[in-house]
Amino acid sequence: SAGPVAMPKASSDKVFPATRRLLRTEQQRILVTGGAGFVGSHLVDALMQQGHIVYVLDNLFTGRRENIEHWVGHPNFEFFQQDVVHPFFVEVTRIYHLACPASPPHYQANPIKTIKCSTQGCMNMLGLAKRCNARLLFTSTSEIYGDPQIHPQPESYWGNVHTWGPRACYDEGKRVGETMCFSYRQQHKVQVRVSRIFNTYGPRMDPLDGRVVSNFIMQALRGEPLTIYGTGKQTRSFQYVSDLVRGLIALMEGDYDDPVNIGNPQERTVEEFARSVASMCGSAGGVVMRPRPTDDPMVRRPNVARAREVIGWQPKVSLEEGLVPTIEYFKGVLGREDAKLPA
Ligand code: NAD
Ligand code: UDP
């Protein structure tokens, strides 16, 4: 009775982004934990485009399947939905260990989960690196410097971190993650790389993650006032995600194995940042002041001399350049949200 039924499209019909063809001997087998997140998915794109075999391990706690959907079904790609706190085994040559909730509202929502991820999860991945004789890159953070008393922050600074404040679950988790990396290096000769990442932004950020970049852009696009926490005189230095991904790969493939800051030294007060976002989004919503969060660092700016020297890396994208595609991305998010509203 019914007419011809359309056959479901075979997965081989899917059109994938272009990838280089590598010889088997040139191809790395790479595990990216947290690969469905903001930074991880951009890293996965770069590694896939280079022609490598990429496995993603992610529990989708803050990441999204859409971020990696364009690779699902590709012969070089595999996604495993699992928590890093559980043992996991694949045969790999490289491990980029990113899995960890990263924005203050996310990592503070369930601090014990954050600590387990940073301790048990990191231990599992170092154990895997040891077993496979793989090299592991750990994404540490500028947060290990806490509320810094040295400015800008060089890698030699040991930091100023509150051990039991609201940020401690994240900061101390990353600090012990670094400690574990260097203990595995010393005791088991595991090859480790440690990147200390400073505030990074770009397309695929979670619009609801509560970070200043996503909050301000979403507020500005909606014509709402931008929420400045505290005086707005505190500073951050914002790095565009493509610079970070280039830095992570350079660090992984280089020989240097002490910690390296990866960030953009262009420093702004939160107030100045609000002004830039408002003007670029054409917002007339103004600003509103909110209380300063406990232990919110007053200043943050990387010293990137070491990265320049040991991996020949420096950031290329200015804040004004990087905000353009980022704002476009958030416009798309808002467009999709509006489409879901009842007429
Ligand atoms: P994100 O939240 O977008 O990505 C984290 C990913 O890890 C998500 O996909 C999430 O689902 C996954 N994840 C979380 N807990 C997990 C678990 N227990 N098991 C498996 N997967 C888990 O955050 P992001 O900004 O992409 O950050 C990536 C990494 O870079 C994090 O380790 C973060 O600490 C670090 N970092 C980011 C920044 C930044 O500004 N974005 C700055 C410093 C450090
Ligand atoms: N911030 C703000 N308004 C917001 C969100 C954050 O003024 O809506 C401030 C926050 O207090 C901090 C800075 O912006 O001083 C960066 O905050 P974010 O959460 O993005 O990152 P982190 O504090 O981890 O650097």
TrEMBL record:
GO molecular function: NAD+ binding; UDP-glucuronate decarboxylase activity
UniProt-listed Enzyme Commission number(s): 4.1.1.35
Localization in the cell: Golgi apparatus, Golgi stack membrane
Keyword Manganese found: no
Pathway linked to the protein: Nucleotide-sugar biosynthesis; UDP-alpha-D-xylose biosynthesis; UDP-alpha-D-xylose from UDP-alpha-D-glucuronate: step 1/1
Coiled-coil region: none
Keywords for the protein's UniProt record, in alphabetical order: Decarboxylase, Glycoprotein, Golgi apparatus, Lyase, Membrane, NAD, Signal-anchor, Transmembrane, Transmembrane helix
Entry's Gene Ontology cellular component terms: Golgi cisterna membrane
Cofactor(s), names only, from the UniProt record: NAD(+)
All residue ranges annotated as the NAD(P)-binding domain in the record: 31-323
Topology class, membrane: Single-pass type II membrane protein
GO biological process: D-xylose metabolic process; UDP-D-xylose biosynthetic process
Keyword Lyase among record annotations: yes
Catalytic activity: UDP-alpha-D-glucuronate + H(+) = UDP-alpha-D-xylose + CO2
Family to which this protein belongs: Belongs to the NAD(P)-dependent epimerase/dehydratase family. UDP-glucuronic acid decarboxylase subfamily.
Name of the protein: UDP-glucuronic acid decarboxylase 1
Species assigned in the record: Cafeteria roenbergensis (Marine flagellate)
